């Protein structure tokens, strides 16, 4: 095993917790079963890692096997690193009939044609996600396997989720995706998260949603402490309305775990206390950043408890409606005082 | 007051007449202050107006090396009750005693000789020039270096720093103290909590001083936001960043970074400097913060007042609700220290 393969292998092994090591190596199925069974996973990390590297060398495993292991690890643990979303637009007529084999062929052919040294691996996961691993090189350097780009795409959807892509390689990946999926262009999705699962669930709408309806009333679990009956009666209708609004904007159940949302404000001043500013033409610039361990649930709670007033402002509901978490808010021309229109 | 020799003609360098601040005699008192002093009668109340932040080339008065010590770190704030029989001319003896005390505490049960050179080296230095008025005591800077017993001479590493200061402390209060007492009510610390506790314990034993934490309430943070924004014309604050925390489930953190020029224009439209002796009122500070909160509300419909303001930061410094502060710029250090000294004296139980 050469030095490159060794370094990639030790990197992967360092990140895997000892308790998951056994399952991962089994799934990899590159090491004979009897040798695997003999491994003692309770040893100190350094010894364990050396032992496994030794086993790999004994079995003459190479870079190809090691990158395979890395891919399996990432597929099993997708919520690491930083992912951002892109959207494919303007599909050609035969975009809907693209099959996996065709996709793989076209993708690899395009990239191999434009980049001198490159290593591409494509794997289809059982949930129909196509995982692509790319190690980039250039005219003078071999592919760098320590900093691979990962891209995930579900065929026939318009989203691609990308992690660890350098700016200089962006154009190559974009073109390859356009060619392979038969779309004309690809654009920035303005959504960045740590969790691929959250991103995927949000964009592919894989979470419970509520659609606005005058008749629909959602039953809420009554965990609230017992209130005076008169207060409860007065508040119950308000509470129901607030709960309804929260569910419509952010979903009733477990929402995708987004962590941040950033709004760049370039609107005119809309506060109190300053007549001169309110009448002025200049923008009151600022950046607002919301962060939480689960942003949509926090917003849901704020709306349901009244901290956020209803109806839910389109700025916040745009996170779920449009599936993005970076917005630039500008004024849409002269606006009557007390309202602020926005254009994203 | 005497003329201060400054190269630049700033408002601070012109003779300043002593201002009469009204302390707590009026009936119409901001109700928010009362709950902070449960059942105790203090003479001191926080002023409702204060002078605008004055730029001062502090390096004329204070050694730049000393200033550099104050600027770099994040400090934790505490208040200190007056120190009994503290003498500025006995600092080296204090240093030796504190050093032995720390070594003794760390090696419980072993007798330690005062002056023995092992483990920790403590230095007490005065920082002359920070004190503003005649009744302010000079600032004292304490540094603890760890000295491994068998290491080379240059292996010393500063492990803990702290300083005691009093800037523009209330003159009536300071003059009313008995002669033996020195008041340095504001204590900044940086370093491991274990050493901070030891230092506080030593001060307690030697000078009968008590310490207490000094968390910064939202009123103080609002003042800092307004004061720092007001400095923008003379010293680019680069940004005004405010961070709130809303207790939703899970907790939501909101940070609002305002463009400094726009923040300043908002402040300027609320408070126009009327004279060289610029006074800012509490109502203006409140209006400034309300303006920002309302602008935010108009966009997001979220009541920031339902949350708690946690931090205020600009390039001049940052202040955290927990009582942590970082000083970014020496020009406005006097105003900042004045505000914090007032707050420390106010919080101190009498």
Protein described:
The complex is a heterodimer of chains A (344) and B (350). Chain A has 344 residues and is α+β, with helices and mostly antiparallel strands. Chain A has twelve helices and nine strands. In chain A, helix 1 crosses helix 4 (45-58), helix 2 (18-28) packs across helix 5 (63-76) and helix 6 (100-114) packs antiparallel against helix 7 (167-181). The longest helix of chain A has 22 residues, at 229-250. Chain A starts with a helix and ends in a 14-residue tail after the last strand. Mean pLDDT of chain A is 85; it is low at 333-344. Chain B has eight helices and 15 strands. Chain B has helices at residues 64-71, 91-106, 171-176, 193-207, 218-230, 260-270, 282-300, 333-347, and strands at 49-51, 74-80, 83-84, 119-127, 139-147, 157-165, 181-182, 186-190, 211-213, 240-246, 252-258, 279-281, 308-314, 317-320, 324-327. Chain B has 350 residues and is of the alpha+beta class. In chain B, a hairpin with a 5-residue loop joins strand 10 (240-246) and strand 11. In chain B, helix 2 (91-106) crosses helix 4 (193-207) and helix 5 (218-230) crosses helix 7. The interface between A and B is large, with 43 and 35 residues. Strand 8 (283-291) of chain A pairs antiparallel with strand 11 of chain B. Chain B: Belongs to the CENP-L/IML3 family. Chain B: This is Centromere protein L. Chain B: Keywords: Centromere, Chromosome, Nucleus.
Key phrases:
heterodimer, A: 344 residues, alpha+beta, S-adenosylmethionine decarboxylase, 3 domains, six-stranded antiparallel sheet, three-stranded mixed sheet, 9 strands, 42% helix, 20% strand, globular, disordered C terminus, B: 350 residues, eleven-stranded antiparallel sheet, two-stranded antiparallel sheet, 8 helices, 15 strands, disordered N terminus, nucleus (chain A), centromere (chain A), CENP-NAC/CAD_complex (chain A)
């Amino acid at each position: 095993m050469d030095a490159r393969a060794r370094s990639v292998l030790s990197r992967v092994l360092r990140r895997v917790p000892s308790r998951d090591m056994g399952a991962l190596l089994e799934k990899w199925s590159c090491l004979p079963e009897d040798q695997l069974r003999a491994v003692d996973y309770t040893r100190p990390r350094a010894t364990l890692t050396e032992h496994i590297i030794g086993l790999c060398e004994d079995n003459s495993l190479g870079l190809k096997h090691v990158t395979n292991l890395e891919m399996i690890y990432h597929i099993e643990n997708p919520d690491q690193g930083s992912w951002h979303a892109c959207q494919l637009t303007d599909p050609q007529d035969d975009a809907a009939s693209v099959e996996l084999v065709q996709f793989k062929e076209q993708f690899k052919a395009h990239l191999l044609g434009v980049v001198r040294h490159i290593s591409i691996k494509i794997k289809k996961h059982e949930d129909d996600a196509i995982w692509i691993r790319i190690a980039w090189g250039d005219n003078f350097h071999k592919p760098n396997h320590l900093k691979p780009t990962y891209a995930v795409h579900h065929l026939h959807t318009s989203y691609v989720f990308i992690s660890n892509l350098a700016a200089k390689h962006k154009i190559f990946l974009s073109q390859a995706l356009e060619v392979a999926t038969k779309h004309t262009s690809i654009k920035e999705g303005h959504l960045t998260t740590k969790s691929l699962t959250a991103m995927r669930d949000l964009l592919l709408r894989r979470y419970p949603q509520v659609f606005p309806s005058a008749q629909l009333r959602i039953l809420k679990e009554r965990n609230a402490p017992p209130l005076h009956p008169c207060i409860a009666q007065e508040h119950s209708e308000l509470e129901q309305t607030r709960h309804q609004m929260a569910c419509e904007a952010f979903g009733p159940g477990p929402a995708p775990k987004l962590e941040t949302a950033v709004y760049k404000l370039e609107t005119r001043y809309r506060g109190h206390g300053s007549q001169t500013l309110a009448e002025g033409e200049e923008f009151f610039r600022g950046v607002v950043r919301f962060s939480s361990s689960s942003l949509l649930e926090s917003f849901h709670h704020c709306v349901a408890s009244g901290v956020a007033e209803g109806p839910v402002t389109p700025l916040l509901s745009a996170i779920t409606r449009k599936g993005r978490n970076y917005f630039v808010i500008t004024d849409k021309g002269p606006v009557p005082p007390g309202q602020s229109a926005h254009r994203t | 007051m005497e003329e201060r020799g400054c190269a630049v003609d700033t408002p601070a360098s012109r003779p300043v007449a002593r201002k009469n601040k009204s302390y707590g005699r009026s009936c119409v008192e901001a109700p928010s202050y009362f709950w902070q002093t449960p059942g105790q009668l203090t003479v001191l109340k926080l002023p409702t107006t204060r002078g605008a932040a004055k730029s001062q080339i502090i390096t004329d008065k204070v050694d730049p090396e000393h200033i550099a010590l104050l600027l770099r770190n994040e400090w934790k704030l505490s208040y200190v009750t007056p120190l009994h029989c503290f003498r500025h001319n006995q600092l080296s003896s204090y240093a030796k005693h504190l050093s032995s005390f720390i070594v003794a505490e760390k090696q419980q049960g072993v007798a330690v000789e005062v002056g023995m050179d092992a483990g920790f080296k403590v230095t007490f230095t005065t920082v002359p020039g920070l004190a503003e008025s005649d009744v302010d005591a000079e600032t004292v800077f304490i540094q603890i270096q760890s000295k491994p017993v068998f290491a080379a001479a240059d292996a010393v590493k500063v492990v803990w720093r702290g300083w005691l200061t009093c800037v523009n402390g209330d003159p009536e209060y300071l003059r009313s103290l008995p002669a033996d007492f020195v008041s340095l009510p504001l204590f900044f610390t940086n370093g491991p909590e274990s050493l901070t506790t030891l230092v506080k314990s030593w001060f307690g034993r030697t000078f009968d001083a008590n310490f207490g934490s000094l968390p910064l309430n939202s009123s103080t943070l609002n003042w800092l936001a307004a004061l720092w924004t007001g400095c923008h014309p003379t010293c680019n604050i680069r940004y005004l960043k405010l961070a709130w925390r809303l207790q939703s489930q899970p907790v939501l953190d909101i940070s609002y970074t305002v463009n400094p020029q726009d923040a300043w224009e908002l402040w300027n439209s609320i408070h126009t400097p009327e004279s060289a002796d610029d006074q800012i009122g509490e109502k203006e500070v409140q209006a400034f913060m309300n303006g920002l909160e309302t602008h935010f509300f108009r966009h997001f419909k979220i009541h920031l007042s339902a949350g708690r303001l946690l931090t205020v930061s600009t390039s001049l410094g940052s202040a955290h609700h927990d009582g942590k502060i970082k000083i970014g710029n020496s020009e406005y250090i006097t105003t900042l220290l004045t505000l914090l000294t007032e707050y420390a004296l106010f919080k101190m139980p009498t």
